[in-house]
Amino acid sequence: MRALSPAGTDGMRGWVQNSREHCRVLWFMIAILMVGVSTIASFNCVTKAMCHLGTATECGSLVGRLNPANEHEYQLPHFLARGLQFGWQSGDQLSNWTGLFNVTDDPAVQSGSDSSSRCCNAPAFLFTTQKNTPLGTKLKYEVDTSGIYHINQEIFRMFPKDMPYYRSQFKKCAVVGNGGILKNSRCGREINSADFVFRCNLPPISEKYTMDVGVKTDVVTVNPSIITERFHKLEKWRRPFYRVLQVYENASVLLPAFYNTRNTDVSIRVKYVLDDFESPQAVYYFHPQYLVNVSRYWLSLGVRAKRISTGLILATAALELCEEVHLFGFWAFPMNPSGLYITHHYYDNVKPRPGFHAMPSEIFNFLHLHSRGILRVHTGTCSCC
User: Fold this and answer.
1) 345 φ/ψ angles, rounded to the nearest 5 degrees
2) Span of the secretion signal (predicted)?
3) Interacting residues of 385 by C-beta distance below 8 A, sequence separation 6+
């Protein structure tokens, strides 16, 4: 066999490299299309479940706002794939997808966020409060529906008198997910510039990450499984847990204490720990009915999972509490919009439990809302301030 010349070798290497790149792009586009087709197919079903969450007028408005009235008028999967293909072919960095999704300032379009929010009612039911959960209430769990927690005097005193936030209280909010798409994004300053910042599940915000993820935190959620696995249910590791929370300064701590019966004791223990260390941080608990409402709402839009993600819950609440909602670190694919491989989280590459969340479907719905100007999904490099 005749040996390849150096030029021939270089040409072969280039051909192989281009072929691999094309395969990666093709795989990513197929994944997006599959998620898109699945989601749009579900847009026309389960509207009755949505109307269980608010008045018929509010939910009817929501269906009209978010559901494509005519699939021939709004073929988002094709539109999305076409935009991605253009970006890869032209070499553009699809910074925040702004050109692709036509963010609009039209108040008529943006009012969709108000319609969607009223179906879940975060200003009244995001947290358990003394107003929405009076003393003596037999509180039903979100998942363990046969379980009931009797609100006694000790637990009742832990609740705030009323919700600390009201509708559209904040001008600009950032909901910060933990996706690897945040790595090298330089979005820290933009996140810090928000009036209110939500973070999920005790993410690291040390100096190593601040350029990309910022430090400002107003609410940080804590999954009880983190407390169980990393801090031994707070039976011994109380001070290490307290020190972790100090990183977020005066941020409120939010837990799903009434998601299931296993979560309650360890979630309540968080309040005791912070009180023992005389911490000024408030501790709040998701109201289980709010979690039910949010799950039903997103189910009606095709998000079918054992449990919706904390990020989706916070983003839904932000649509009610904020005039502008910006999402950072929300992505569910192994490549970014530019076709580059990314880690699952910005701080590690630990994969989630298979089938527990429906992350691709959640992201697709976020992009749908982005396309209608209801919120802003950041997927590129930031150039804030």
Assistant:
1) -110, 160
2) none
3) 189, 190, 193
357 is annotated as an active-site residue: yes
- How far, in Å, CA of 303 to CA of 366, rounded? 11
SS3 264: helix
Rounded Cα distance, 174 and 42, in Å: 28
CB atoms near residue 292 (< 10 Å): 19
Residue 15 burial (CB count, 10 A): 10
Instruction: Indicate the pTM of the whole model.
Output: 0.74
What is the band of 354 on the pLDDT scale with cuts at 50, 70, 90?
low
Residue 278, C-beta contacts closer than 8 angstroms, at least 6 positions apart: none
Residue with tokens 């983190």: 226
- Among candidate residues 357, 368, 370, 378, the one labeled active-site is 357
| Most distant pair of Cα atoms in the chain: their distance | 88
Joined tokens for residue 292: 């039910």
Describe the chain by its helix, strand, coil percentages, rounded to 5: 45, 10, 40
Please answer whether residues 300 and 57 qualify as being in contact, where contact means their C-beta atoms are separated by less than 8 angstroms: no
Quick: pLDDT tens for 196-245: 999 999 999 999 999 999 999 999 999 999 999 999 999 989 999 999 99
- Element (H or E) spanning 322, and its range? strand 322-328
Domain borders along the chain are 107-378
pLDDT given for residue 97 in this prediction: 34
Instruction: Give the span between the Cα atoms of 216 and 251, in whole angstroms.
Output: 9
Q: In what order do the strands lie in the sheet with 219-221?
A: 283-285, 252-255, 219-221, 196-199, 170-176, 322-328, 376-378
What would the DSSP string read from start to end of 193-235?
TSSEEEE-SS---STTTHHHH-S--SEEE--HHHHHHHHGGGS
- According to DSSP, the β-strands at 170-176 and 196-199 are parallel
CATH number of 107-378: 3.90.1480.20
Measured CA to CA, the distance from residue 225 to residue 283 in angstroms comes to: 17
